[in-house]
Write a structure and sequence with these properties.
The chain has 467 residues and is of the alpha/beta class. It has helices at residues 8-17, 19-39, 71-81, 84-90, 100-106, 126-145, 170-198, 206-213, 229-238, 243-255, 307-317, 336-343, 408-420; strands spanning 44-51, 55-60, 63-68, 107-113, 116-123, 157-160, 217-221, 291-298, 322-326, 356-360, 374-381, 396-402, 425-431.
């Protein structure tokens, strides 16, 4: 599988395209961070202070050695306060009970000033932190004040017991970890989205779609996504495209040569009366019959199925008698709900009663109504192994595809299948184009109308004006 090179613009589009995935991962990260904050609540800390004597006299080998209150002495007592002997002596007074390694992890001994030792303990609650700090403090003071102390009696005393525990508030703790989880989720989501986009071969821009099979994009419009027969019925009766999309559909019909300059306007005789009783002018092709168009889509692209019905409803809204034909399909399930909608009777006020006829058939051929001006046939082929179903013959064939729904290989196979059936694909209709797509899809140039040649400037001719 080929991989796409990702630049900043492409990366931004890829992330925006997979914003749902990124959002889900971010949400999971936030929930995970909040859950961690609940399972691991913030530890509160409380500190007890011990004051040491300014100097200590110790008897060593019958000699008296004076050790002044200096940093080395205090540093030694800091080590003693955190020793196993002091911690083991404090364990019976620690609540809830802790193991020696766990108590060691929760205790921090430091010297904020000479002759001062600070014992800080952490706990899940204020009472736990204060009780643990006081227990270790009492164990140390008892040890060094004892005559049997292994480090000598130094008469240390409690300066301030642990009374107030401080720490991060639970709400703040939860918010912090939720933000951390959200940032981690965003990073993971972006990485996953870029990895997916790098290996995604589906075509999204109009130029890429057109270049894949060498056929221009005639129109690109948003489509409805009906999931039931009622949704298709509503689309056929009430479809009203925006002005820009209506112009694209109109131009597409003109490009396919299934409409004339009098698009949607009945011809009139010299007296100003319509040549047709109902004022509706059929659009005929070069052979004098009604125009017909096959809209071919892939079974893996349900969005493109609506292109044919929307085009038919639009043509009918332009005063063109139109027939929408749903014939046999290679994948019958792909158009099942549309076929069901076509068999339902139209509403009383529906445009289908006078301008749009819908027909569904499975075998044989079908003859459109004599006054039909435009026949639009909908066909769906398998995206993996496309084969043209036995639908009626048409004057033109277009491929309908949604942006980001098919690869170049799938479109090429569909075009080859149509060509093998004697149908030349002359254009592409794109459903749901991406808003960030600024390409045109190689829109073909309309033929310039013939104009009379301007007169040439005459030179060398003498003119005389007589008075």
């Amino acid at each position: 599988m080929s991989q796409k090179a990702l630049d900043l613009r492409t990366s931004t589009q890829t992330i925006r395209r997979h914003k749902l995935l990124v959002s889900i991962v971010v949400a999971l990260g936030i929930l995970g961070g909040a859950a961690y904050a609940v399972l691991k609540p913030p530890m509160l800390a409380s500190t007890a202070l011990i004051v040491l004597p300014p100097q200590v006299s110790q008897q060593q080998n019958g000699a008296t050695t004076t050790i002044s209150g200096s940093d080395p002495f205090t540093a030694t007592q800091v080590i003693v306060a955190g020793s196993n002997q002091v911690l083991v002596g404090a364990l019976p007074d620690v609540h809830p009970p802790l193991s020696l390694p766990e108590l060691r992890r929760r205790i921090q001994v430091a010297s904020p000033a000479p002759e001062i030792i600070a014992i800080t303990a952490k706990g899940k609650t204020a009472a736990d932190a204060e009780g643990t700090a006081n227990a270790v403090t009492h164990s140390y003071v008892s040890l060094v004040n004892s005559q049997n102390s292994p480090v000598g009696s130094i008469r240390a005393r409690l300066l301030e017991s642990a009374r107030t525990a401080t720490g991060t508030a639970p709400v703040e703790w939860t918010v912090i970890w939720a933000l951390v989880g959200g940032l981690a989720g965003a990073l993971i989501g972006v990485i996953v989205a870029l990895a997916i986009g790098r290996n995604d071969r589906r075509l999204r821009e109009r130029d890429d779609i057109a270049n894949s099979v060498g056929i221009p994009v005639l129109a690109s419009v948003p489509v409805a996504h009906p999931s039931a027969a009622a949704g298709w019925t509503s689309l056929l009766e009430d479809y009203k495209p925006a002005s820009v999309h209506a112009w694209q559909l109109r131009a597409a019909l003109q490009q396919l040569d299934v409409a004339r300059s009098a698009f949607g306007h009945p011809p009139y005789d010299g007296n100003g009366s319509s040549l047709y009783d109902d004022g509706l002018a059929p659009i005929y092709d070069r052979d004098g019959g009604s125009s017909s168009l096959l809209v071919l889509s892939l079974s893996s692209d349900p969005g493109a199925l609506a292109l044919g019905p929307q085009l038919a409803a639009f043509a009918a809204s332009q005063n063109i008698r139109t027939a929408l034909v749903i014939g046999p399909q290679q994948d019958a399930a792909a158009a099942a709900t549309l076929r069901t909608a076509c068999t339902a009777p139209p509403a009383t006020a529906s445009i289908r009663r006078g301008l749009l006829r819908v027909t569904a058939y499975d075998e044989g051929d079908i003859e459109p109504h004599p006054d039909t001006a435009l026949v639009i046939v909908v066909a769906v082929v398998d995206s993996r192994a496309p084969e043209m179903p036995g639908t009626m013959r048409t004057n033109a064939t277009v491929i309908g595809v949604s942006a980001g729904a098919a690869t170049a290989e799938q479109l090429a196979r569909a075009a080859v299948a149509a060509g093998a059936d004697g149908r030349d694909v002359t254009g592409i209709l794109v459903a749901d184009p991406e808003t960030s797509d600024q390409t045109t899809g190689r829109i073909p140039q309309l033929a310039r109308p013939a104009r009379s040649r301007l007169p040439s400037r005459l030179r060398g001719i003498v003119t005389e004006i007589k008075r």
